[in-house]
Amino acid sequence: MEYDEDLISLIEAASDERCDECVGRVPDRRDLVTYVTGPGGRPMPILKTLQSTMCKMNCLYCATRRDRDVRRRSMNPDELASLFHELLSHGLVEGIFLSSGIVGDSDRTMERIVETARIIRKRYGFKGYIHLKIMPGASDAAIEDAISLATRVSVNIEAPNRMRLSKIAPEKDFDISIQTIRRARKLIMESGLQVSQTTQLVVGAAGETDREILESIGRLYKELGVSRTYFSGFRPVPDTPLDNLPPADPRRIARLYQADFLIRRYGFEVEEIPLEDDGNLSLGIDPKMKWAISHPEFFPVEVNTADREILLKVPGIGPKSAWKILMMRREGGIRGLEDLKRAGVWIQRASGFITINGRRPLSQLSLDI
Ligand code: SF4
After folding, report:
1. Closest approach atom of ligand 1 to CA 50
2. pLDDT digits (tens, 9 = 90+) for 71-81
3. Dihedral through CA 306, CA 312, CA 316, CA 319, nearest 10?
């Protein structure tokens, strides 16, 4: 299938956006499909694109910033919806993520995004995944329109706080982004629709620490109902004011995702996440293991009696394996390492932190032998 050059350049410009767990991209330039984690954890191909690479803003890190000398492209809602439908009918994609440079004001930009989504839903009858970007400062009416059509909406905060945002996007207003997230949350609740809200921030461009990032996302989860955050590792773009900065270390991004999981899925408070003296996560050890090593008073945990929240603090036990352990306890209990393996526990990590019926698993192992 031949793709329009405009579409290709819009897709390429969208590559700094993160949505869901982006798990890869087909390498062929003519087949620019992004894979995200779909229902049941399977990779789901989506079209991730901008409606327009025109933008009136001048964010220092961005390839489509106003002052950068690049050819600008746009697609009108009809064209983009029809291209998506074509990709869909060829079985190449199963959903769409739609964002845009800011053309005119926030509402005008959103009108075009929303119109594309409306055509996809109404004209083509698409019932699957649509992720729509909400522009900071958009009106309630524009947000309501997006919510009525989307599976997921997102407002990017880009940086963890006002001061850091001013270093990389001096024309953006952190408070307006937060207010927009708050209004979107309220409108989603009022609509009664099952629409999730996420956000994204750029890591490694503003000199921010992981502590600042984790404190910021902790507030977004607790106070603003954001369901998750995507970390976009900074990559220097030629001919931008930050093109002399090094790219973000991928290990840092991986550690941030681990810490984020601990906060969202494992019941850790932000303050519990162990940080180095410089306010950053350790690159050498994952945050859950580091927490466990520095809290010997908490262990060993008895797998046959511990509550779910306690089990989740054990390295090698995640939400699924904790749930399976609880189920197995109803059916006679955990008798040995084989039972834990069946529950999906990562034995090598967990064994030093648990007891099974009062015994350390290693001594039990030798008995088994
Ligand atoms: S608003 Fe900023 S980050 Fe977004 S497209 Fe425009 S310049 Fe780039």
Report:
1. 5
2. 898 999 999 99
3. 110
